[in-house]
Amino acid sequence: MSNINKASKNSSRQRFSDEQIKSLETTFEVESRPELRMKQHLAKKLGLQPRQVAIWFQNRRARSKPKELERDYNVLKADYDKLVSQFESMKKENQALLIQLQKLKQAEGRSDEQFGNENMKIETLEQTRFLLENDSPELGVPLCNDFSRKVDYLWDDADDHPELVQMADGYLTSTDNIHSFESSCLMDNSSHSGNGGQAFNF
DNA sequence: TTGTGTTTTATTGCCTCC
DNA sequence: GGAGGCAATAAAACACAA
């Protein structure tokens, strides 16, 4: 269609009146996708063509879409932040419980060597915590690059204690936790290929 | 007044569903 | 295949600074 034809075809275009807009908005709040019958009723009531009413709702939905997306994003982010917070507190609780377990096992007569060198554990804890906290400061959560490097078996005789492994940051955790954590990392790895120079070799 | 950016109405083309 | 929805886009109407 030429520009001239378009211009002549649109020459009668005019903005809807405040009353028309108000009525359309009111309807939109109740039903953003009104049925044909409703659109015909509205058109008759407002002195518009049914096609104009249909187009108005179409455009109105398009305008509201970014706002809806923003609302959904905020809800999801709030949920996510809450989960991160819960995860952190559960991680601490888990650590405390595993330390308790460690002490109990020590009390049972195990030597310190079987549980690894405490000094090295503390040093590794500080280094890894720094890296994880700086992986994604804007989200306040660590990413999962090179996860496999961050897991070491706590005991040389791991066969005796397959239920416990040591995270590289010094936290103790169960193998079940490790597996679930690895699964969650699959989502992150797509957007963070490689270790970005941040991974830490142990 | 005019140039420019934004908003609103309308068209087009494609897709999905029945 | 027709109806209706959506994304992309055109173009008129409007707002506003200079």
Structure characterization notes:
This protein is mainly α and 202 residues long. Helices cover 60% and strands 4% of the residues. The chain has six helices and three strands. The protein has helices at residues 3-9, 18-30, 36-46, 50-107, 118-135, 175-189; strands at 151-152, 164-167, 172-174. The chain has a three-stranded antiparallel β-sheet with strand order 1-2-3. A hairpin with a 4-residue loop joins strand 2 (164-167) and strand 3 (172-174). The radius of gyration is 30 Å and the shape is rod-shaped. Residues 1-11 and 135-202 have low confidence and may be disordered. The protein binds a DNA duplex (18 and 18 nucleotides) through helix 1 and helix 4. Residues 7-67 form the Homeobox domain. GO terms for molecular function: DNA-binding transcription factor activity, RNA polymerase II-specific; sequence-specific DNA binding. Residues 73-107 form a coiled coil. One of its GO terms (cellular component) is nucleus. It is found in: Nucleus.
Features:
single chain; 202 residues; mainly alpha; 3-stranded antiparallel sheet; 6 helices; 3 strands; disordered N terminus; DNA-binding
Describe the structure concisely.
By secondary structure, the chain is mainly α. The chain has helices at residues 3-9, 18-30, 36-46, 50-107, 118-135, 175-189, and strands at residues 151-152, 164-167, 172-174.
Overall helicity: 55-70%
By DSSP, the count of extended strands is 3
Class inferred from helices and paired strands:
mainly alpha
Instruction: Please give the radius of gyration in angstroms.
Output: 30 Å
Q: What's the oligomerization state?
A: single chain
Low-confidence stretches: 1-11, 135-202
Question: What's the main sheet like?
Answer: 3 strands, antiparallel
